[in-house]
Amino acid sequence: MTEKGCIKCGHTEAETKEIATTGTGFSKMFDIQHNKFLVVYCTNCGYSELYNKNASNASNVIDFFFG
């Protein structure tokens, strides 16, 4: 049997946010934020996972987050 939900608390609701970060070298020096990530987090305990925004879409990531 496959259980679904947050791996930390078992809660079944999640939300997403987008963040951008700098890399290394010149992008860090000039504060150029070209690395984009999708953060999926549990609305109960706040457990979060980062996903490369260029590699996936939101619905697939949330499905993956909950197993």
Give your account of this protein's structure:
The chain is an alpha+beta fold. The chain has one domain (14-65). Helix content is 18%, strand content 31%. The chain contains two helices and three strands; from the N terminus they run βαββα. It has helices at residues 26-29, 58-65; strands at 14-21, 35-42, 48-52. It has a three-stranded antiparallel β-sheet, covered by helices on one side. A hairpin with a 5-residue loop joins strand 2 (35-42) and strand 3 (48-52). It is elongated, with a radius of gyration of 14 Å. The model has no long low-confidence stretch (mean pLDDT 74).
Question: Secondary structure elements and their pairing?
Answer:
Layout: E1 14-21, H1 26-29, E2 35-42, E3 48-52, H2 58-65
Antiparallel strand pairs: 1-2, 2-3
Structural class: alpha+beta
Question: How many beta-strand runs?
Answer: 3
What is the overall silhouette?
elongated
Helix share of residues? 10-25%
Task: Compute the separation of the termini in Å.
Answer: 12 Å
Strand content: 25-35%
Uncertain runs: none
Structural domain tally? 1
Cα gyration radius (Å):
14 Å
